[in-house]
Amino acid sequence: MTEPRARDVLVDPIFRRNPVMLLVLGICSALVVTKKLETAVVMAASVVAVLAASNTIVSAIRRVVGRSVRIFVQITIIASLVIVVDQVLRAFLPDVARQLSVFVSLIVTNCIVMARAEGFAMSHRPWLSFLDGVGNALGYGVVLIAVAFVRELFGYGTVFGATVLPAVAEGGWYVPNGMMRLPPMALVLVGLGIWALRTWRPEQREERP
């Protein structure tokens, strides 16, 4: 089997085969963590760390892990990495960690993480698996950050907490859009993004039966 090029493995999940926009994976966390840009960026960075590390480790030990226990081993590796990331956030970014609450811990159930471990890392070398993890996590993170930017800007009139659209309540002219603060708006924005992407790139549409 011909191995894919390293550049394609890293870049394709960000632009051509985005796990959220093309495969509609990992959108559950978009409901809550995209309310503010700060939490979205930290969540994206956490997924990059976990996915890159878990892919690398799973790939490195793939030849010594029995097929019957591979899922258990993968979950154990991912859960251990999530615990480390969670503790690091609690130590260095306690306020953000409180805002993210249990959603960092739920990275272990993120279908993107499990899918890449099983679908790619189990059949490719560690270096390619590392790049695949980084690429897919960045693809996920780009969507999270884009949605958070829109929600914070129009829901609060701020970007990273800094005022961009002065609110009426503070003597400005902008009336914050309360709907943008509601969790379902994250899915609406993701859906609009998928529609726009597939309109622009028709080859990404599913074939109708």
Describe the structure.
The mean pLDDT is 89. With 209 residues, the chain is mostly helical. The chain has a domain at 6-144. The chain starts with 5 loop residues before the first helix and ends in a 9-residue tail after the last helix. Helix 1 runs parallel beside helix 7 and helix 3 packs antiparallel against helix 4 (70-92). The chain contains eight helices and two strands, in the order αααααααββα. A two-stranded antiparallel ribbon has the order 1-2.
What's the multimeric state? single chain
Number of strands: 2
Q: Can you tell me the residue ranges where pLDDT is under 50 for at least 5 consecutive residues?
A: none
Mean pLDDT: 89
Largest sheet: 2 strands, antiparallel
Radius of gyration based on Cα positions: 19 Å
Strand proportion, as a percent range, falls in under 5%
Portion of residues within helices: 55-70%
Outline the secondary-structure elements:
Layout: H1 6-15, H2 30-33, H3 37-60, H4 70-92, H5 94-100, H6 111-119, H7 126-156, E1 158-159, E2 162-163, H8 184-200
Antiparallel strand pairs: 1-2
Helix pairs in contact: 1-7, 3-4, 3-5, 3-6, 3-7, 4-5, 4-6, 6-7, 7-8
Which features would summarize this protein structure in a list?
209 residues, 2 strands, mainly alpha, single chain, two-stranded antiparallel ribbon
Explain briefly what this protein structure is:
By secondary structure, the protein is mainly alpha-helical. The protein is 60% helix and 2% strand.
